[in-house]
Amino acid sequence: MDLRGHLELLVLAALARTGSAHGYALIGAMRDGSDGRFDLPEGTVYPALHRLERLGLVSSGWDESQARRRRVYVLTDAGHTALSAQRAEWRTFAAAVERFAL
Amino acid sequence: MDLRGHLELLVLAALARTGSAHGYALIGAMRDGSDGRFDLPEGTVYPALHRLERLGLVSSGWDESQARRRRVYVLTDAGHTALSAQRAEWRTFAAAVERFAL
DNA sequence: ATCCATACCTAGATGGTCTAGGTATGTGCG
DNA sequence: CGCACATACCTAGACCATCTAGGTATGGAT
To answer: In a designed cystine with B83, which of B2, B12, B26, B43 is the match (CB 3.0 to 4.6 A)?
Structure first.
């Protein structure tokens, strides 16, 4: 799919949209929320979530209340901050591309 | 600077803007045309130009008319086509990010 | 019973970008 | 003149995000 560094923004935004969600649901949310454009393989998303957790931007816990166990993620405060920063960064980046390359 | 896959679009667009230019001038054009936002190291741009030439999107020749020899690049027909395609791709990508993540 | 969707995971390949060097020529300045 | 600096080209290798390609296991439907 070639997200080229924008994956982090997408995952954080997906989590902000859903409030909290497990990995597989996030994959679906990104796919469905983008008309199939952001259809990421699990091998991309799971490691990204682990990285975000190492960075302290998300935290996770096992949800055992369902029949099938799931690792549920939520944004931390730092995650919300990072999301705002990445959104701002995207805007200036996109504006620059727009001005220069289009 | 972290252009993450958008470098090709930028270089092609820079060449389209200038008509034809040598590598060092393209670096300046990208830097100045973006308020310093696209300030790429030579080690990024020269290999990118070589790659684009291998792909047939640009062609080059030595300009010996000046005191200092320069390798001057121009877009090929395929390069113009590729630029249009990448602009279109950018637009749909940016629109999807905008809708989903902002 | 079997198959598919769900749900998680990781090792290793891939490949674009950057770091960090190198070479050489012209130009401005004291 | 000598020196610094900008110009102009180049490449090897590091880095690291993403993808490929596997693996495991459970639940629900037929």
So the answer is: B12
